[in-house]
Amino acid sequence: MAVPASEVSMRGKTVLLTGATGGLGTATALALARRGAHLLLVGRNQLKLEALLAQVQQAGATMGGSAEILVADLSLLAQVQELAEEVTRRHSQLDVLINNAGIMGGPHTITSEGHELSWVTNHLAPFVLTNLLLPLLLAAPQGRIINVASEAHWLGQIEASREVRNARGRYSGITAYCDSKLANILFTNELAHRLDLTAITANSLHPGVVNTDLVNGEKPPLMRALWWLAKPIMVTPERGARTTVYLASSPEVARVSGRYFKNSRPGRCAERASNRAEANRLWRISAEETGIE
Fold this sequence. Notes:
alpha/beta, SDR_fam
């Protein structure tokens, strides 16, 4: 008989969670703390991380859940590398890596390192962080990599050229977001293929249309309008976090890899998201742009 997700213990497991101070990230952190996990909480804002740390410690008190915080801006790959180095200094193994951090594109923005903001935050940062932390995941009895994607990937495509991707005249915040979510799934699938003979699994997921602050700030009017139209079908962050928590904790998926999940079940993704040649092409593009082989 399968153990209910709410009863699966994560005691003794170390979990790194990016985007921890957002709605979905916070809900994920609290749920895993209640299962006894030791959480490495990553965010950009020290004060928000400290406030979350107090919440997590309270939530995990009964089951022995604990946490530590790490400050990093994932839009800058130099900080992603520093984050990986700090995690490696502190820990000898990592049981679960949850690449949850993500943004929905606003104004056209190129970072100081020369990357379009959505592309680097949503895809290149997880690509770099995951590759740099693979030794810690390999050191765990059964490492799990979880990438939070979206149904928006159905509208995405992968541009081969950074110049095209960075061009202001071609930019659309919605398009940039969809492209990065397609990249999340392709990256996951190629990662699962490359890790096939290891104890590490890699899966992606759609959390649902979650009622968070993803479109707060300076966003295009169309994006804000679509978001408000979707309000009636939105789910809470707590419900949106269920699939992530399931993939992080359930023994049912201990050997499942390279799948796209919705509502804690394997789901259908776009045909191009399952294309091996496209996944391999994305890996080459990502390696060239980050210097990570």
